[in-house]
Design brief:
It is a single chain. The protein is an alpha/beta fold and 327 residues long. Helices cover 46% and strands 15% of the residues. The chain folds into two domains: 6-213, Rossmann fold; 224-323, Orthogonal Bundle (Helicase, Ruva Protein, domain 3). A five-stranded parallel sheet has the order 2-5-8-1-9. Strand 6 (135-138) and strand 7 form a beta hairpin.
């Protein structure tokens, strides 16, 4: 496979910078979130977002869809949902004795699965199967999902009653898990000025199309990754599985399970995308390190001992990053 050229990398960076600027016309104080979503879009992976209500999670996805000129769907997950509410269903026509297909909201480019942990397992599985296979079967027909296809699922970290937590095997299908906090006081004032002022609310203009994203993905696949960078990504993941063997015996009783092979793969994919959005045609260990916490935090399962010490997955991944030698 031919490697990406510096000119191609610069062109992709320019396009995505314009898209980021368009989203920035609407959103305030969410630059890190927007950058991560652009990375996921470029690396062809889904995102799990954790944050309290009212932090513009819906707005960021709908605005991003406007900036990249893609279709947007929003699914509000509730305990009484059925899989057909996500994927669609067959409608029977009694007059003609035939069935017709009505596609569900998963047939979109950017899909927001709001409060995914409020729906039972069978509904979660219907969405996650579509995420993995990129297709939906309704009756005897199988339909390919649109490309590009990005699912951003949200969950509220505060409320636990009436929820169905995602099992680890399903969490692993998300490329990244992002945590969204409150904006700063200055950013919150800017939000009020922009959204509650006397002028019209800003709107993002299209900066690219779906075909541009697919072309950029091809360039991202061709970004050069040195063997030492690949080994660094694998060493990070291996350290979460067996921290004692990696020279961190103090973490052995704090990690129940480490990251899967999908963790290593996503580290390299996102490192390529991170390098490309920086205008480079090669990756560095810094690219891997920059995305490692977001890739690994939902793949590392902590023990009761860790919870007793108030250590979460972020703390343990940070300790791994601090101790694994950088090439």
């Amino acid at each position: 496979m031919a490697e990406a050229t510096l000119a191609e990398a610069g062109s992709v960076r320019e396009r995505f910078d314009i898209a980021r600027a368009e989203v920035g016309k609407v959103l305030v104080g969410q630059d890190a979130l927007v950058q991560r979503l652009l990375l996921a879009l470029l690396a062809d992976g889904h995102v799990l977002l954790e944050g309290v209500p009212g932090l513009a999670k819906t707005l960021v996805v709908s605005t991003l869809a406007q900036a990249v000129e893609c279709s947007f769907s929003r699914i509000q997950f509730t305990p009484d949902m059925l899989p057909g509410d996500v994927t669609g269903t067959q409608i029977f026509n009694p007059r003609e004795g035939t069935y017709s297909v009505r596609k569900g909201p998963v047939f979109g480019n950017l899909v927001l699965a709001d409060e995914i942990n409020r729906a039972p397992a069978k509904v979660q599985s219907a969405l996650l199967e579509a995420m993995q296979e990129r297709q939906v079967t309704l009756g005897e027909e199988t339909f390919r999902l649109a490309e590009p296809f990005l699912v951003m699922a949200t969950q509220n970290p505060i409320e636990q009653e009436g929820t169905y937590p995602l099992p680890e095997a399903q969490l692993d299908r998300f490329m990244m898990k992002l945590k969204v906090g409150y904006p700063s006081a200055d950013d919150e004032v800017r939000v009020i000025d922009r959204m509650a002022g006397s002028g019209r609310e800003p709107v993002a203009s299209p900066a690219m199309r779906g075909d541009d994203i697919l072309a950029a993905r091809e360039v991202a696949r061709q970004v050069f990754v040195d063997d030492k960078v690949k080994r660094y990504a694998v060493d990070l993941v291996a350290a979460t599985r067996d921290p004692a063997a990696a020279g961190m015996p103090e973490l052995a009783n704090l990690i129940e399970y480490g990251a899967s092979v999908r963790g290593s793969l996503n580290l390299v994919k996102l490192a390529k995308a991170h390098a490309l959005l920086a205008g480079r045609d090669y990756t560095s260990p810094h690219d891997v390190k920059s995305v490692a916490v977001d890739v690994l935090r939902h793949r590392v399962v902590v023990t009761y001992e860790a919870e007793a010490e108030n250590r979460d997955a972020d703390d343990l991944v940070a300790a791994v990053l601090a101790n694994v030698e950088v090439p």
